[in-house]
Design brief:
Elements lengths: L2 H8 L9 H16 L4 H6 L5 H8 L10 H11 L5 H6 L8 H30 L5 H13 L5
């Protein structure tokens, strides 16, 4: 893995930071697919808004409007979340996040941490494979520069 790819993998920039609506639908998709085993149509049959409405909601930005309350309530019900959970996600109000949602987010953070740990192990093995000396020092400098870390 080149240092450029490593930086791209590990970087958290404004361009890659998800919006609150993207976060909602990432969590919705995971719960729909992995926890409930539902298709998009199955989620609609369980009481969620239509797939078309969900697609329109996915493209939104900014704070939720009050006309979004009903579709978000329907989404909560279909996903088995307490009322107000989806609203809390898009309003970025953690007081409305349910325990189920928090454990879903915690699980994803653990997966991300595991992935970062695996990347770090690969990098460590590759750097250790370089004999001590100027070549290894140069490789470390490039790695630290790619990660934008001061030595």
């Amino acid at each position: 893995m080149s240092t450029t790819n490593l930086r791209d993998t590990l970087a958290v920039t404004n361009e890659t930071r998800e919006t609150q609506w993207e976060r909602l639908f990432r969590i919705v998709e995971r719960r729909r697919r992995d926890v409930l085993g539902l298709t998009q149509e199955g989620l609609h049959l369980a009481g969620a808004p239509t797939p078309r409405t969900l697609q329109d909601m996915r493209g939104r930005t900014g704070e939720p409007s009050h006309r979004m309350r009903l579709p978000l309530r329907k989404l909560d019900a279909a996903l088995g979340w307490p009322e107000g959970t989806a609203w809390g996600l898009v309003a970025d109000d953690r007081s409305d996040w349910s325990e189920a949602l928090l454990s879903d987010e915690e699980e994803q953070l653990m997966e991300s941490a595991d992935e970062a740990s695996e990347i770090a192990k690969v990098v460590e093995l590759r750097v250790r494979a370089i004999p001590r000396g100027p070549e290894r020092d140069a490789a470390m400098q490039r790695l630290l520069a790619a990660l934008e870390v001061e030595p």
